[in-house]
Amino acid sequence: MGEHEGWPQPNGLLPNGLLPNVSASVIRDLDAERWSKAEERTAELIACIQPNQPSEERRNAVAEYVQQLISKCFPCQVFTFGSVPLKTYLPDGDIDLTAFSKDQSLKDTWASQVRDMLESEEKNEKAEFRVKEVQYIQEI
């Protein structure tokens, strides 16, 4: 039995997902000129959204700032994860942080301590970065 047995296969091709029951009529090779144009436009798009040196420095500075704030709350190590260290973030993307502590007693209080620290920093007019709209979302 083939992997796709039972699927509609007009002309022996798998469905392309574009139109129902239509396959070969919408599939065609791009000539060299069109392919070159597609690559050029793709490169332009990537250049617009990929991290550049100033945005990367700014994002890292914000991450370090928040890491320091969290570290002031209790003994822990704070790391970035997700799109920031992978450099796959979008211009308006968030910064994901995770904190690790050996202190088991923090299990029930760490989130409130971090929230209190951020709310305090929100009122600090001399803060290195502007903290705003602090929210604590507790998932149950």
Automatic annotation (TrEMBL):
What SUPFAM superfamilies does the record point to?
Nucleotidyltransferase
Q: Where is the Poly(A) RNA polymerase mitochondrial-like central palm domain?
A: 43-138
**InterPro entries in the record, alphabetically?**
MTPAP-like_central (IPR054708), NT_sf (IPR043519), PAP/OAS1-rel (IPR058921)
* Domain of life where this protein originates: Eukaryota
Q: Which PANTHER family match?
A: NUCLEOTIDYLTRANSFERASE, PAP/OAS1 SUBSTRATE-BINDING DOMAIN SUPERFAMILY
Q: What is this protein called?
A: Poly(A) RNA polymerase mitochondrial-like central palm domain-containing protein
